[in-house]
Amino acid sequence: MADDLATGAAGASVIMATCGDERHPPEHILEPNDGSFWATTGLYPQEFVIKLSGTAQVNKVRTLTSNVKRFVLEYCDSDRPDKFKPVFEVELADKNQRLQTEVHQVNCQAKFLKFTIGSGWGDFASVHRVSVF
């Protein structure tokens, strides 16, 4: 399998998140440890943007989340993260606070990926890991 483009080692970073908790910061999304996570602070929607090390062909996105109901992915291939185009929107099953693993085949050239949690199965949701191939 190709290398994960969404890691700090690959040069990726979380450049924006609509909320943050010092115990569970957005940077945890890019860590290889599935036990660390970014926690929303209530209310929806919540968003985060990942900047890849450069523009890359994205073929697959894997997410590991908890309590997420509606999830949206958009991409941007310009130098500034300001004009995003839709990739997918999905409703995830309620797993009673267990981890939700989703794998989506996609086809886009992206420098930035914006993830939106449109709604959740509870007051709070978490993103444990995003992998981009």
UniProtKB/TrEMBL annotation:
Gene Ontology CC terms, in alphabetical order: cilium; intraciliary transport particle B
One GO BP annotation of this record: intraciliary transport
Name this protein carries in UniProt: F5/8 type C domain-containing protein
